[in-house]
Write a structure and sequence with these properties.
This protein is an alpha+beta fold. Helix content is 35%, strand content 25%. It contains eleven helices and 13 strands. The strands form three sheets. Strands 7-6-3-4-5-11 form a six-stranded mixed sheet, covered by helices on one side. A hairpin with a 6-residue loop joins strand 12 and strand 13. The longest helix is centred in the first third of the chain and has 19 residues. The protein is elongated, with a radius of gyration of 23 Å. The relative contact order is 0.15.
Length: 320
């Protein structure tokens, strides 16, 4: 079962979070593999998407915010798009879109073409966003200030948190076909919102960060939370934090439905839907996240786009 632990270190301005996604991550991969049009993700893409999903859960669990957090990587390499979305109660979904073959062993720079138009977006979308109100959006660079590509998802998030949020952050991620996991360590600001300046706090964070970086891939993916934390921080006074009210274990959920697709078609408008029907005979819409397929024929579309009075007057005749 997927699990998340939040903790602090007694006497130090340092907090941490650990996540391991098992059933939730396997559900993402299973649904993709069942899609006959796309097939399973190539291993390098599955690893990147798994790490992105674990990172999104860790970031979402660390903020007080009523809404969804989305990490989105865009590129002009073999990987066109990778998206991981996590809700306040840790419901998650993730998907990736390819536009070319992913070479075996390719990392983030090769998959997205870090020197091209590749970028990473950090999006906060309020649950009750007002009409016309855009979500909050931050841009995480895929390269360092000198232009060298950042090596992986963890490096991108660390760089973003230091540069944009002024939070010293250490992130270790791993993913395979069975699990996606991550360990996040952050230095806490003081009550005024600034970093504590004393040497003890600095030394404490560095020590904890170095210990976190010793976590091996097999440990992250194979050990349960308490076993991993004891192994890494056995000399530290670590205090586990209770989960916030309303949250549970991370789990895969996709809110798509026929009603949502119908609303989307209504938003497209009559002319666009009619053009699709003339060309294809039906309107088929598939969800990239869960693989759900919805099919609307001319009669279905008429029911969406015409009032009952219009339909009785022969409005359906145009949707053929």
């Amino acid at each position: 079962m997927s699990e998340l632990h939040r903790f602090i270190f007694e006497g130090l301005p340092v907090r941490g979070q650990w996540v391991r996604l098992t059933d939730a991550w396997q559900d993402v991969l299973r649904r993709r593999a069942a899609n006959t049009q796309t097939g399973a993700y190539p291993p390098p893409v599955a690893q990147l998407l798994g790490e992105l999903t674990a990172a999104a859960v860790l970031l979402r669990a660390g903020i007080k915010f009523d809404g969804a957090l989305t990490l989105q990587i865009q590129g002009d390499g073999p990987l066109k798009l990778a998206v991981a979305e996590v809700q306040a109660d840790l419901r998650l979904r993730a998907t990736a879109t390819l536009q070319g073959a992913a070479p075996a062993g390719a990392g983030l720079p090769e998959l997205v073409n870090a020197h091209g138009r590749g970028r990473c977006l950090v999006v906060l979308d309020p649950a009750h966003r007002r009409h016309g109100q855009p979500p909050q959006q931050g841009v995480a660079a895929l390269t360092e200030e000198g232009g060298a590509p950042l090596p992986d998802v963890a490096g991108v998030i660390e760089h973003y948190m230091r540069q944009s949020e002024q939070l010293d952050t250490t992130l270790v991620l791993a993913a395979d076909a069975q699990a996606a996991a991550g360990l996040l360590i952050q230095r806490l600001p003081d009550n005024g919102g600034q970093r504590a300046a004393d040497e003890g706090a600095e030394d404490g964070y560095r020590r904890i960060a170095l210990l976190a970086q010793t976590a091996q891939r097999a440990e992250l993916l194979g050990l349960d939370g308490m076993a991993l934390l004891r192994r890494l921080f056995w000399q530290e006074k670590l205090l586990l934090l209770a989960s916030p009210p309303g949250t549970s274990a991370p789990r895969f959920t996709c809110p798509c439905s026929r009603e949502r697709v119908a609303a989307m078609l209504q938003g497209l408008g009559r002319q666009e839907v009619e053009a699709i029907l003339r060309e294809q005979g039906v309107v088929e819409v598939g969800c990239d996240f869960c693989g759900r397929q919805e099919r609307f024929d001319a009669v279905d579309a008429a029911g969406l786009l015409f009032t009952p009075a219009q339909a009785l007057m022969g409005g359906t005749q145009t949707l053929q």
